[in-house]
Every structure is written in structure tokens, then in C-alpha cells.
């Protein structure tokens, strides 16, 4: 899975402002807070969730496409929710550790909210996948480019 480095261009104080807005809207924040910076923070949070959601949904679509091309797997009940479940509920330990090193301590919450901001996955019966059978790695787009040996212009280095 390749994720856009969503922290790029994201002001850390905007995320803090988003948290303050959430507290304020739930009656626990400071009275008289200036709403404009708080709303900018909420926008930054939504932007981050949209970027993550777009990347996760692209990964899910690519996985489903791959499964559909294999005669054995195509009839095994593996559907897009299978991959969402794998990512959220059966996360391979290396992927969870990677997200945590990026500072995403509650990745399940972030990813589930990101999926909710994206076009919905149809609710349908699906086969649960075992991480040992369907492993995957996690990269930022910058890391993937350098891992593939390509420069920023896409040419082989």
C-alpha cells in the first residue's frame, strides 16, 4: 500500500486546533475560542482523511482486481470489505508498527474515518483474510519511488 505523505504541508497547529474544536463542540473546550483557526484545523483534518482514504480505497480496488484475475481466488468470497477488514482488524504487525513509527498511534480510528470519507464499500458478505496469507507492505509515495530505483522524474536511477 502506498500512502501520500499526508503530513506534507500540514500545519501541526492546525491539527491541534481541530482537536480544540472537537472539545469545544462537545462542551469541554475553552469558552470564547476563535472559530476561524479551529475551522482551518477541521479542514486540515478532513484533508488528511481524504488523502488517506483515497490511497486506501485505491489499494483495496487494486487488491480486488488482482483477486478477480485468479480463478481460484475469484470464487473464494474475497471482496473489497475483505481487504478493509484485513487493514483495520487483522493488521499485519509490520504494518501496524510502521504506522506507529509515523506517529499514527490510533491508526484503526484514522483509517476507518478515512474510509468513511471515501466512496463507501458496499456491505456484503465477505471472506476474512489471514495476514499470513495476504501480507502487504506500507510505503509513503516518496519511499516507494526510491525503493523502485526511480528518480522524481520517474526514470530509472
Structure, described:
This protein is mostly helical. It has one domain (2-147). The protein has helices at residues 12-25, 35-68, 71-74, 80-89, 93-101, 107-116, 141-147; strands at 2-3, 139-140. The protein has a two-stranded parallel sheet with strand order 1-2. Helix 1 packs across helix 2 (35-68), helix 2 (35-68) crosses helix 4 and helix 2 (35-68) packs across helix 6. The mean pLDDT is 80.
Shape: elongated
Estimate percent helicity. 55-70%
Q: Termini, distance in Å? A: 22 Å
**Which range does the strand content fall in?**
under 5%
DSSP helical segment count: 7
Rg value = 18 Å
The secondary-structure element order is: EHHHHHHEH
**Domain module tally:** 1
* Strand order of the biggest β-sheet: 1-2
| Global structural class | mainly alpha
Output the keywords.
elongated, 157 residues, two-stranded parallel ribbon, 2 strands, mainly alpha, 56% helix, 7 helices, 3% strand, single chain
Topology:
Blueprint: E1 2-3, H1 12-25, H2 35-68, H3 71-74, H4 80-89, H5 93-101, H6 107-116, E2 139-140, H7 141-147
Parallel strand pairs: 1-2
Quick recap of the structure?
By secondary structure, the protein is mainly alpha-helical. The chain has helices at 12-25, 35-68, 71-74, 80-89, 93-101, 107-116, 141-147, and strands at 2-3, 139-140. α2 (35-68) crosses α4 and α4 packs antiparallel against α6 (107-116).
